[in-house]
Amino acid sequence: MTGDGERQFPAGERQLFLDGDDLARMDGLRRVFHQPRKRGAVIRREPALGGNPEIRSAPVWDPQARVWKLWTICITPEELHGIAGLSGYHESRDGLHWYQPILREAEYLGTRENNLVYIPMGDGCTAEILGAVYDQGDPDPSRRYKALSFTMAPELAILFATSPDGIHWTRVDTPPIASGDEPNFSFDEKEHLFIATVKVPGPFGRSHALTVSEDFENWSEPEMVFHADEEDQEQARRIIADRLADPTLQQPVFNHPEEHAVDVYNFAISRYESRYIGFASMFYHTGRAWNDRNHDGFHHVQMACSRDMRNWRRLGERAPFIGPSPLGSGAYDTMQILGPSFPVVRGDQLWFYYSGIRHRWQPPKAGPERAAICLAALRRDGFVSLDAGAEEGTVTTVPFHWEGERLYLNAEAGNGEIRCELIGSEGQPLEGYERGNSIPLAADGARQPAVWREREFMPADSESPVQLQIWIRDASLYSYWFE
């Protein structure tokens, strides 16, 4: 039981600094927003399949087969979407090198020698896999894989499917949910909650609503939770002008200044440790295309965080989490960037798989390789750090109860030091856990135990909460947790 303003920190759940909700005070520290390091394309165009791959998903680990599995979309020509959706199925043992098993499940371009999979829709129609997760806790092995898909007939909507292996799919008999063409999907394993976002109209164009399910059959009524606002529009005019003036970046084909604006092309929600995080693919329109069908423009991926998936806080003052690569680099993410669905934890790193697209409307002399699946990597918990220079800074948490015996820090302190102190309910340092007894952390490590002289473990559980105060000098702190 916790009182007002108190927190409960479960064992193993990392506490990050995405917002200040868990902090009582911060002095002399800077909150620094970090971007991942791009590692380039990992899945490229497959000429035999006639298309450029994209994803609105992320790899999932199959513990039985001991491989990563990933489903790509946009394999089939545009005229087949909605009636013959097909997805490419890929496997990898390291997440970097992907191969395409010959499955012989679907005929395409006159052959079944391919890696294509689909969701049967009846009447000869098929649907692609837009997002998939692995639900290890489902007692029915035939339902361990769960997917979200999209259909255009008889109306724009999302639907759901299950599979024993990620290859053979069965549609779930649940009513479709109305959506535009950019849904997203993830699984909160801790709460056993399936999370989907659907595209809906909003105050500034494309916006996104949330629907959730505990059993993958009964879904909540979609509720709008994320859209562009006035501040986005103000920033958009500057961002577009800067883009058009930069010769190192890919330029749009169409530019009509009176149409410059921004909306949210895709919005992915997922659970990460103690928060929900969101990746918003912000679409900056530069002008309507010649056929008046859609806008030309480019994307930045922004990041946001939330406790309840309904109230969102933008991170990094709306700076790009993933931005465009320059021309001449050989990269694919020069124009359109469709953000990651959720981060993949790989040891002490987070891996982000996303779609990189070289142009939205084809410029003259464009090559056939238009899109690829790209990878970026970030230090685990590395979204936001609290940084101090030569002058020491401090951060103090709100009162909390904890589960576990040891305190761990994810910190970069190779050129400085970090010390910790526990404060009791009366505001006094706990005996043995004072700052003077804290052995300084002076290394770079994603998992460093906090140790006090003669006090390696946390104090015995008490009904009274404690606060954690951390002193930082010439170092960066990313997270803390208890085990």
Automatic annotation (TrEMBL):
This is Glycoside hydrolase family 32 protein. It comes from Caldilineaceae bacterium SB0661_bin_32.
